[in-house]
Structures are given as structure tokens and as C-alpha cells.
């Protein structure tokens, strides 16, 4: 079984973007399930992932972390086993929503996950913006580590 060392998320301050690529010792189909099945999604991203109308373009939902933040979300793209994207913002969706894009591909029987979150409405000087992005990157590092752990624990 391959042992991957996945690097942390990185930030691009001028573009207001966070990126992370991780390798998962699981099939793409398993990782895909972790992205689009709300009960699995909630096991690695937040404590609640609720999409009452299902995971489809235009579907509205929310992510929540117990005792913390609630993010309103709208599914943008669903391309089975290859691409999933959604926009989200604290409270309600607005022009302050950011876009999360996840792309999957298979490499030597394992899944590679490429995540980009962009469109942050950051304010302040470069140092303030850099610190905000680093905080978001730290969050994606934790969350995607949880995705890897979950996907690798599921039956093949």
C-alpha cells in the first residue's frame, strides 16, 4: 500500500486563492462518494453537510461546524468521478461567496484530489490578506487530511 506524504495547502495572495493537492490510496470512485454523499461529506468537511434536494447543479445546502460557523452553499458543477464545485459563504450566499473546485484524477490506481478555493473578498493590506489566506489554508490542510483518512478507511 503506498504511503503518501501530502504537503499542506498553499496560498496565492494576489489571486486570493488557496490550493491543495493530495494523493489518496483509494479508487477515484471512493473519493467521489466522499464528495457527493452528504453523510460521508459531513464526516470530513464540517459536522453537517445538508443538501435537501440532493447534490446537483443549483442545489442549495449548508455546511456547519458545531459551535462555530454555518456556511450557506450552492452546488455549481457535478461531473461524476471528475469534478465537483460549490460556492459558499457565511450565513447567506452573496457576492462575498467563495468558490471551491475539486478535481479528481486517477494516477496508478490511486486518486489525486486537486482543490482550489478562490474568490475570497479579502480586505486590508497584503500582510492581513496573507494571514487570512494562511488561516484558510490551514483549515483545508486539516479537512483534506480527514478526507484522505476517510476515503482510505472505506471498503474498496
Helix and strand arrangement:
Elements: E1 10-12, E2 17-24, H1 28-36, H2 38-44, E3 48-50, E4 60-64, E5 70-79, E6 83-90, E7 98-107, E8 110-118, H3 126-153
Antiparallel strand pairs: 1-2, 2-8, 3-4, 4-5, 5-6, 6-7, 7-8
Helix pairs in contact: 1-2, 2-3
Spatial order of the strands in the main sheet? 1-2-8-7-6-5-4-3
Work out the number of β strands: 8
Figure out the total of helices: 3
> Uncertain regions: pLDDT < 50 for 5+ in a row?
none
The domain tally reads 1
Please indicate the percent range of residues in DSSP E strands (runs of 2 or more).
Answer: 35-45%
Which second-level CATH architecture applies? 2-Layer Sandwich
Q: List the quaternary state of the chains.
A: single chain
> Tell me about the biggest sheet?
8 strands, antiparallel
Structural class: alpha+beta
Gross geometry: globular
Radius of gyration (CA) equals: 15 Å
Mean pLDDT: 91
